[in-house]
Amino acid sequence: MTDLLFDAPWWLPTLLGGAGIVLSWNGNRRGEARVRNAGLGLALAAALVITVSYLVDTVVEKAEKQSRALVRAVEQRDWPALTGILDPRTELKIMNGFTFYENRDEIVNGAMDAVERYGVKNLRILTSTAERADTLISVTMTLYSEHEATMGRPITTTWLMEWQEMGDTWSLARITFIKMGNLSADAAARHFPRPR
């Protein structure tokens, strides 16, 4: 029910506002104050739903924003920000494979090495989808990046970030590398710097 208010689908305020306008117009035209006031109340409710939905982030929206902030931190080489987003136990896995980095420090060091080694720049989010299943929020992102090592040719990569509910907070539990361009995750994983 709270998602209906905090992450309102487009049709809810549209329906409330449309019904409010029709009732208000008809009530005003016929001189029926109760109908007019009911219409104004529905229009006000539509405005309230839009305002609350815009101002209050759901946990899914927060997870997606944090995932975007993680990408921004890597692009800007803001390692303290990246460290702040990651949980100390966050791990990075290869799709259908093994855990490549076992904790936050290994992930940050690997990101630092990869960004310098390949000259990563212009990191952009092409697509982002978020889904919640009970105590797990999955954010899947496809990223576009340019690399000096490829002479500026763009590369697309796909990642899955899984946010786990831990008491009252949500923490990034796992990052899963899905694919790079046309390469599978296993084939592309050899480009990851070894953990140190």
Please give a structural write-up.
By secondary structure, the chain is α+β, with helices and mostly antiparallel strands. 46% of the residues lie in helices and 31% in strands. It has helices at residues 2-6, 11-30, 33-55, 59-75, 79-85, 104-118, 185-188, and strands at residues 91-94, 99-101, 120-133, 136-147, 154-166, 169-180, 183-184. Strands 1, 2, 3, 4, 5, 6 and 7 form a seven-stranded mixed β-sheet that branches. Strand 6 and strand 7 (183-184) form a beta hairpin. Helix 2 packs antiparallel against helix 3 (33-55). The longest helix is centred in the N-terminal third of the chain and has 23 residues, at 33-55. The chain is elongated. The protein starts with a helix and ends in an 8-residue tail after the last helix.
Low-confidence parts, pLDDT < 50 over ≥5 residues? none
- Major sheet size, sense and barrel closure: 7 strands, mixed
Report Rg. 23 Å
Distance between the termini: 46 Å
Roughly how much helix do the residues carry, as a percent range? 40-55%
Shape: elongated
Percent of residues in beta strands: 25-35%
- Helix run count: 7
Structural class by sheet pairing and helices: alpha+beta
Task: Write down the overall mean pLDDT.
Answer: 88
Can you count the beta strands?
Answer: 7
- Tell me the series of helices and strands, N- to C-terminal: HHHHHEEHEEEEEH
